[in-house]
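Side project, low priority. Logging it here so it doesn't get lost.
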Amino acid sequence: MSGCIFCRIAAGEIPARKIFEDEHVLAFHDIQPQAPVHILVIPKAHIPSMAELTAEHEAAMGRAMVVAGRLAREQGCADGFRTIVNTGRVGLQEVYHLHVHVLGGPDPLPPMLKR
């Protein structure tokens, strides 16, 4: 997907502050962090959203979840963190390349939704 910003980051065409990369996934710091720790973990394959996942994506998405937890701890989130996958219009997905937000820091995060 030549127009996809995350595909271009994965291809090395756009710079990013990478913190992990293997054959399945890439992790980098968000350019507009919403918490002291804000990492994005993306599959290298273009998958538009979580709604498009199939059995063929299990290895990459399983790897993304394992990497997300490890990187959160390595970035100082030993006492917890939040993972978010926004999906589609209703889920407020902005970039249509599946990505996992990992957010945390020294203090508790605010509620996700108003109660």
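Brief comment: The chain has two helices and five strands.
Revisit when time allows.
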